[in-house]
Amino acid sequence: MRRIRPSRVLACAALGALPLLLATGCSGGDPVIKKDDVAEQASAQLEEAVGVAPDDFTCPEDLPAEVGAEIRCELTSGDLTYGATVTTTEVDGDQAEFDVQVDESPKE
Fold first, then answer.
1. Which domain of life is it from (predicted)?
2. What is the pLDDT of residues 68-103, one digit of tens each?
3. Is residue 56 part of a domain?
4. Could you read off the pLDDT of 10-38 as tens digits, one per residue?
5. How far is it, in rounded angstroms, from Cα 64 to Cα 41?
6. Boundaries of domain holding 51
7. Residue 69, strand partner residues
8. How many domains does the chain have?
9. Has residue 61 been placed in a domain?
10. Exposure string (b/e) for 81-93, b if CB count within 10 Å is 16 or more?
11. In the structure, what pLDDT confidence band is assigned to residue 66 with cuts at 50, 70 and 90?
């Protein structure tokens, strides 16, 4: 199994913006980017940037579709776990973009 080496994670710590369709709750609440969509797209972008996908990328909550909104996620590669900050950068109609910033050091 290939692992994401820390040096390769650092090289792409700030991933590009990722466009996603927005979702709203059953009650028509504020639009969000579903946590599973955030994780899937962030993982795919990381794979494109460093050549290997993380073993896992999880987010504990949906990302509000509001410019500047942030959530903290985690990615694992082998026995290393990194934190990642996901920030909404643009909202246009029913689409939003976000950036992913992977922490420089793994969690202990």
1. Bacteria
2. 999 999 999 899 999 999 998 888 887 888 888 889
3. yes
4. 333 344 444 555 565 445 678 888 999 99
5. 16
6. 6-101
7. none
8. 1
9. yes
10. bbebebbbeebee
11. very high
